[in-house]
Please model this.
Amino acid sequence: MGGLEVWGRENVPPQGPLIVACSHASHLDPMILGAVFDRPLHFMARRSLFSIPGFAWLIRQNQAFPLNREGDSREALRAFGGLLDRNQAVVMFPEGTRSLDGVVGEMKPGIGMLAVKNLAPVLPVYIWGNFQSWPRGRRFPRRHRLKARLGPVIVPRGGKEIRKEEQARITNSVGLVIRNLELEAWQGENGRPERLALPNSL
Model:
């Protein structure tokens, strides 16, 4: 694709349950993550992708499992929790869908809920160059340099009395870390989007 540079690989826990919370701007993202991580990864993907002939087989071969975003999601959440119970790493795209312009969007609250419910650490990841290579609406990818930045692990705190507050803290922290990684990745690059804004510090 033109090269992949990785920063922060030392932040990846070598074992134990892990939620990988990654920015999402391209269909390339699962393949890029697979190249970055030495650990096996499992992917939560929207159910409609599993109805595409050929592609459904491919994503199942790469440890994807379906999420019904419009209906009952309990089966996917049980699968998600079961993988974490078996000390697996599971990928989530906390924006919920691919970015329309390549800029990181709002984090959905599900990332905080799942981290707290399963008491699983979260590793924020930002990928640069994926949108330039294969944005929404483009039929095939083109060559472009890629960067992956892995942030520090965010560990949820237990206790029912702080559950809602902790879910919000995790969601906000993931968003702040990913946006900081986004800014770092854009340093020295041309074509930086105007609406990229410096987030508040953690």
